[in-house]
Amino acid sequence: MALAYAVRLLEQDKTVKLTNYGNYLAQFPPEYECEIVDDTSWSCAHGVERWRSNCGCNSGRPGWNQEWRGPLRQALDELRDAITPLTEEEGAKLL
Questions:
Q1: How far apart are CA 50 and CA 40, in angstroms?
Q2: Phi and psi based region of residue 45 (left: phi greater than 0; alpha: psi -120 to 50; beta: remaining)
Q3: Rounded-to-integer distance, Cα 54 and Cα 90, Å
Q4: What pTM value is reported for the model?
Q5: Phi-psi domain of 29 (left: phi exceeds 0; alpha: psi -120 through 50; beta: other)
């Protein structure tokens, strides 16, 4: 609802022009290219382990841990591996 309200206000403002990302990039092409380095993380000193395991960060809350991260990461990896063949097969028909 908040987004719909904001868009409605912006549409009423004649100094604002709504666009999409593709149109924006066509008007303002990137000046630089970056490369994502695998197995890195900007959000935790423990690196990518933050997303794979209980890295040890507790946000200052005693007793807090991230033991749930390992099983979640494993489940997401298994799901990815299970649907990849289906995605490639069906995607080839559509894309």
A1: 10
A2: alpha
A3: 36
A4: 0.51
A5: beta
Give the gyration radius of the chain's Cα atoms.
21
Residues sharing a CB contact under 8 Å with residue 46, sequence separation 6 or more, in sequence order: 55, 56, 57
Angle value at C-alpha 88, between 85 and 89, nearest 5 degrees = 85
The tokens describing 56, both together, are 């040890």
Burial class of residue 46, CB neighbours in 10 A (0-12, 13-18, 19+): middle
Amino acid at 39: D
What is the DSSP code string of 31-82?
Answer: S----PPTT--SS-TTGGGGGTS--S--TT-TT---TTHHHHHHHHHHHHHH
Across the chain, which has 95 residues, the per-10-residue mean pLDDT values are: 94 93 95 85 74 78 86 94 96 92
Asked if residues 10 and 18 have their Cβ atoms less than 8 Å apart, the reply is: yes
